């Protein structure tokens, strides 16, 4: 997805009534260590300026996925991240830490009464992060991410459903479309999961828009039906 393609899709989603639009990880850049330096921008920069303008024009909130950001000689993703280093024998080897530096803070914001927590890609594997966001009062977790053809079919949906069920909130993931000619092939399948762990909106591997309505009252209903939020054994589960 290029910046211009992102603009078109944002406009299309806004015209159909979307209040919050989330873009994929590295939406302005091919995914791969050899590309990050070339496509890196400062913040503010061209991509963030464009997203700011399109948000104002269309009266919509935008989560700008991620872009490679250059600052003080280092490269970053714009969301709080764990760097993705993976080595699966017979599968895939990829080490973001060869080029990218880690973030050091969490990110939350509110949209129409919903509190949103942000992670990126590999972050979805860390249950602790989702639990912290839940304790901070988040109703929705959004993970722009680019799982690959090895980890995608194994864990993409499984991890989203796990984070949603454990914390009784909505989870949304936003993947780049699959490009089998690229050096890194993304799994695709952007998805929204509800607080009961049900997939309520998804797509295939091609470029598409996933729409979903989120219900604050349903979160409260689920938390009252299965009251793990209130019955958690803090005397046993909290580790000092």
UniProtKB/TrEMBL annotation:
GO BP: asparagine metabolic process; glutamine metabolic process; oxaloacetate metabolic process
Signal peptide: none
Record-listed E.C. numbers: 3.5.1.3
InterPro entries, alphabetized: C-N_Hydrolase (IPR003010), C-N_Hydrolase_sf (IPR036526), Nit1/2_C-N_Hydrolase (IPR045254)
Start and end residues of each CN hydrolase domain: 1-216
Entry-linked PANTHER family: NITRILASE-RELATED, OMEGA-AMIDASE NIT2
One Pfam family of this chain: CN_hydrolase
Recorded catalytic activity of this chain's protein: 2-oxosuccinamate + H2O = oxaloacetate + NH4(+); 2-oxoglutaramate + H2O = 2-oxoglutarate + NH4(+)
Alphabetized GO MF terms: omega-amidase activity
Record carries keyword Hydrolase: yes
Entry keyword Nucleotidyltransferase: no
Family: Belongs to the carbon-nitrogen hydrolase superfamily. NIT1/NIT2 family.
Protein name: omega-amidase
Organism, as annotated: Armadillidium nasatum
Membrane spanning stretches: none
SUPFAM superfamilies assigned: Carbon-nitrogen hydrolase
Top enzyme class: hydrolase
Entry keyword set: Hydrolase
GO cellular component, one term: mitochondrion
